[in-house]
Amino acid sequence: MTITVYSKPACVQCTATTRALEARGLSYSVIDLTEDAEAMEHVTTLGYRQAPVVIAGDAHWAGFRPDMISRLS
To answer: Where is the Glutaredoxin domain (predicted)?
Structure first.
């Protein structure tokens, strides 16, 4: 499964999300929403207005969601 974290600089919830993924040994990629206009449009189209946005397979969510992260491992 591919996990992508759409993040912003100095985002506390983004950092918490990537740390939780690392703690579970899950590999992921990070895309900076402030540097990628297409990525920003993609997450906006999904209805999200806050970072991070995590897309993991068919699941996606916004914010720091330890409950959703635990379902991935």
So the answer is: 3-61
